Amino acid sequence: MKVLITGGAGFIGSNLARFFKQHDPQGEVRIIDDLSTGRRENLDGVDAQLVVGSILDYELLKTVTAGVDSVVHLAAIGSVPRSVAAPRPTHDANSTGTLNVLEAARELGVDHVVVASSSSVYGSNPSLPKSEFDWTRPMSPYAVSKQATEGYAIAYGFSYGMKTLACRFFNVFGPGQPADHDYAAVIPKFLDAALNDRALTVHGDGLQSRDFTFVQTVCTAIFEAATKKIHSADPVNLAFGTNTTLMELVELMKQQLNKDIAVEHVDPRVGDVRASQSDGVRIRELFPELQPVPLEEGLAQTISWFQSKQPG
Ligand code: NAD
Questions:
Q1: Quick count: other Cβ atoms within 10 Å of Cβ 176?
Q2: pLDDT (tens digit per residue) in 65-80
Q3: Does the predicted model carry a pTM greater than 0.85?
Q4: How far apart are the first and last CA of the chain?
Q5: Residue whose CA is at the smallest distance from ligand 1 atom 1
Q6: Closest ligand 1 atom number to CA of residue 73
């Protein structure tokens, strides 16, 4: 099959491009990425065509969309604190960018689009675990932009008969996730600090919990969605209902790294949700054969990757 991955030089996108080529070696993988957070090196050894540019460049976007069977739309400015600091660029890339991706697909007759939404859309809804039918109340400009992303994708299904699937990712982690920028995700940040004997910075009491999902699990689901053109008029939580606090994560890292790790607690972050857990029901309905990689196993693979990147 021919697939376009927007944001394919990023963490999830590059893992997905590799996954596509491993599971469909004859297939064609195209990528559009402006390399704002993504990196060319993430695609080392992957036989994919990388076009460097923005999804906000509509004419360029059309040239890479033409002739593909499916689009996996991952390009976004993907950080809550970054959106709080500067909401407009997040809106432009994530909301307007998604509209561009869907419009390009519609104009060129590409009938299947998978988009990346986020558990952050639930925001201030305190119910746990979360079903896709629970109300959403975004607490940050990033979460609003992800609500727009999934809303547009679903509306294109109703309005134009396009086959769309809006996946709400829940704290995806794994090899290739960067630790070296201000808005890095928690697992790479913790691992980088632990491996370099620095204290881990925990915002608040560390009892905030997440439904961590290993990137391989996400790639398996999206690959299946793209190849079988799986679509839905409702979003799907791409997570399986685990509930791990940051302090439990620290304990697991201590065990796997076999060393003591110091923790420094600082103020909670604006816009962060307290607990995030899916009920794991719809994902099992849509992808009955998908077996999630357990946290312990995913973490071990992630640690190995981080260790392989350590200098010396
Ligand atoms: P990432 O930052 O590594 O990947 C995003 C990619 O999009 C980057 O390569 C970046 O360069 C590219 N990009 C940004 N703006 C662009 C633009 N205007 N045009 C073209 N490319 C652009 O992040 P990721 O963790 O791989 O996330 C992928 C998607 O999943 C994003 O949509 C993100 O919002 C969503 N998501 C991720 C998580 C997670 O835990 N990682 C959780 C929820 C949702």
A1: 21
A2: 999 999 999 999 998 8
A3: yes
A4: 41
A5: 10
A6: 32
